[in-house]
Structures are given as C-alpha cells and as structure tokens.
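#dry-run=false #mode=assembly
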Amino acid sequence: MSTLIYVELQKIFKKWRTYIGIIAIGVLVPIVQAALYFTGDGYIKSLTRGFQDSFLIVGNLFNGYLVANLILNSLFIHIPFLIVLVGGDLLASEATAGTYRMLLTRPVSRFQVVTAKFLAGFIYVTALLAWLAFLSLGVSCLIFGTGELLSFRGKLIIFAADDVLWRFASAYLFAMLSMGTVFAVSFFFSSLVENAIGPIVATMALIIILAVLSALPVDFLQNLSPYFFTSHMTLWNNFFNDPVDYADVLRSGLVLGGHILGLYLITTYIFLKKDILS
Amino acid sequence: MVSDQIIEVRGLTKKFKSLVAVNNLDLNVYRGDVFGFLGPNGAGKSTTIRMLLSLIKPTAGTIKIFGMPLNGNREKILRKVGAIVEKPDFYMYLSAYKNLEILGRLSGADTSKKKIMEMLELVGLAKRYKSKVKTYSHGMKQRLGIAQALMHDPELIILDEPTTGLDPQGMKEIRDLILYLSREKNKTIFLSSHILREVEIIASRMIIINKGTTQVEGTVDELLNTDKVSVTFETDDVEKAMNVLNFTMWNKCFKTKEKNQLILEMPNKEIADLNRHFIENGVNISAVIPVRSLEDYFLKITEGGGR
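#status=ok
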C-alpha cells in the first residue's frame, strides 16, 4: 500500500496542474501581505474607529495573526477550486490516458488502487493547506510580528496573544475536513467519467448550487441546508469566536467526515465494479 | 499434465446490454505455447484479453490461469503475467525510465537502474530513457509497452497487437523477441494479432474466433495442413501437364490454368505425389507453389462461419 501511495504521489507531483494551486497561493498571499503592509494602519483605524475615543489601545493590533485571519477569510472560498483541479483528475485522467490498462493489470487490488489515490489526494490537500498556513500565518508573523488578535463575529473580540495559536491550529485542522470534503466530491465525480474537466466543473457547480440553495429564504431549503456540506465548510470560523461552540463544531465535523467517508465508499464501490473499456 | 495448462477458459461470455461480445468461449493455452489469438475486428479478442486480465468482469464462464481461478487469485496470477492491452498508453508527462520504474515497482519487479536500462536496451530505447513519453512515436511506445510487460520477468506474456504501428524492421525485431522469449526463456506467449503471417510464423498453437465464439483451435501445423491447399505447378507445357493430370485421381482437384501455371486445390500431403507423377510422365515442373496460408484459412473460417 505504501508503494502505491508513493507512486500516486509521484504522479500527482509530476503534473503541472498540481502546482497551479501551490503557485496561486504563493502569489496571492504575498500580494495580500504587501497590500496590508502598506495600507494596514488605515485598515486598523477604520476597524477601531468606533471605540478609539473610549479605549486606549496599546501593543501591536495589526500583526501576523490578524493578517493570517484576514487571508484565511478572503482566500478560503477560492481554495476548493485549487483542490478539485487535482481531485477531479485522479481517476478520470487514468481513463483519458488509457493508463488504467497498465495500472490495473499489476498485482495490486482495485481497492488498494482507489484507496491509495484517495489518500494521496488527501495528502495533497493537507500539503496545500500547510503551504497556506506557512505563508499566511508563518510568514505574516515574521513580517508583521505577533500580538493580540482582533476578531469580528458580530461583536469585536480580542484574543490574548497566547490564546491564538491553538485557534489557528484547530481552524486549519477543520479546514482539512472542509477541503477534504471538496476533494472527496471531485474524486467521486472523477470515478464516473473519462475526462477530468467534467469532475472539476461538476464539483464547483455543486458547491455553487448548494451555497445558493442554502441562502434562499425558503423553509424547505432551510430545513435541508444543515445536510449540505457547503453549510459546514466555513465552520472553522467558530474557533475565532468566544466561547467556541464545540457542539456546532462537532456537528459540522461529523457531517463533513460523514460526507468524506460516504463518498469514498461509493467511489470505491463504483471503481470495484467498473469495466475498464477505455 | 494439468499443471502445464497455463490458461483454461470455459464458457466465457460477456454481454454489454444487448450486445454479446464474447459468447461461450473456450480456450486452452499450454506452457511454452506461442498462442495465436485470431479473429476479425469486433470478434471479441480485446474483450477476451481484458477478461483474462480482470479489466472487465465476465457475464458468465470461468477463467483459470496457472491452474487457479482468476476470481479470487487475481493478484497472485497477475504477479506472473505481463501484458500489453491494445495500444500501450503511458503516463505521458513522465519519462520512459520513470514509467518503467513506477509500473515495475507495482509489479514487484527489480527497479534498479541497471534492470530498467537493461529492459530499455532490449527494446532499443536506452538512448531516449530520459525523454518524456509524450515525445515518443507510436512505435516507440509499442516497444516501451513490451519493456513494461517484461519488467517483472513474467511466466505468461499477453500481447495484444504488439507490432501495430511498427515499421517492417521493428515488426521483425518484435517477432524475433517473441521467439527469443518463447524458445530461450521458456515464456508462454498469448498473442493477438491482425497480421496473420506473423501468427503463422511464430505461433505454435492458435484459435480463431468470430462473433465471440470459437471457430477452430489447435496447432498451427494441424490447422493449416488438414484442409486442402491451393497449389500452383509451374511448367513449360501446360497442355501436356493437363493431359497427364486428366488420367489421375487428382483431375477433380483442377481449378484453373494460366500461361505457365496449373492451379489445383488438393490435400497438402499429396502435393509431392502429384509432383513426382508429373515428372515420371515427362512433365517439366519448374516450381511448386502452395498458396495455402493462414490468411486463406482465416478468411474461409471467418467468412464461412466455421470449417
């Protein structure tokens, strides 16, 4: 199994499309950081305008934590697209290229093949988020320093500097579940077709459709909304609330985890039954 | 000996909705065979090969390879099988070397640089080992396909149209390689080919299928020699040859005559007797050309729907 995962990782990281996500994050985050570096003071002033006269603000509120939080909020919506570029390609590209015939005539079971691909894809998701964390949190802290974190959740919350890192760690772990679900959806679509474009478009379309449906003020849709994975994807934000609603986090984690497991099992079933005709 | 039967297929059937691609097919491949698998386009050859390699699931029937049912022993069997199924497709964005390394690793082969280069050398691609496969011609991919099939030193090699797209020299090299693998390395080869002459030259046993069913199966010699062959006797005096022929039991075999040729359809084993008879009766025979070939036989079988 480790050989298969190694082989799948080699295939993933030898493809140009894999680096689109890594490059996109590598370009966008520094742009945001540079913009904030030059205009950040004004941003903080506008945020704290309401209470500047009432409170004496000491210390560095415009710091790496705030920048990381802003980046996470602004980029999180775009990360799924970078995930599906790889997830949608994993199975479909083998069919497109005809390499299933090579791969599935090796003495490895189909279960192992599909599981190795799934795990390798998950490793890519983790690597992409780790890269995002490194740039947005690590580099931001180096550039802007550390300090208290200002968080806006309907109200202004200020977290002490020593109360922040675990929140980021938890948020990134939760983001793995969110992005893992997006990956699992694209992986599932990838098992159905023989062209990688289809799964990419289908996954993004599904995300948009579910997001739109949950936003519509219709009772029936509002009742369904808790079962949409899109309704739980941004729950990482909960870790920047005080207090953290752990019941909510757990519920969302279970929904997303259930989606990942369910989609993996369905994909595996389809793959095991599939006739390789390509 | 039972253990010498490498492939045993019984009642193999594959239906795609209403289309019956393979219908109740039986075949037997024995150790050391170069087994020719023939049939016209759409006869069910590729579907059969895909079932042998568990790429598609049969609707009915059983497949035993190395005496083990494929169902339930897939990995154990595939460890000893190397294959090319239709055109060899590779990971285009990887080099030939990397492709062999990946595929060899999954087959449990020795993937040391020495071994991989040895394989590339064998198929004449060593100089291009670093090039990405997307820069390869079809013929080069075909050679690489042979290399990947041999990487793990399999006992059974299944080759689906292995010389397609190769130039005449390349075809000969692959034919020689197949013969070498069979004779020197004692490999069992299952060879599907459209090039009938190729099968005639290198196969020891063969099967012809049509519309998914077995038409004939046996040794190439048996199958080619049991039927009448078309034979041309070249002579400087056709009329005299005709006169001699008319007083023999072979007069019924006469087909046609041309300027210097007398064409008959007769049992292969009697050609020598008739030739001797002509000479004893003063007919000069300058050449005896049996035109009975696998191609004739193949067309007869597939067009006629059987023997």
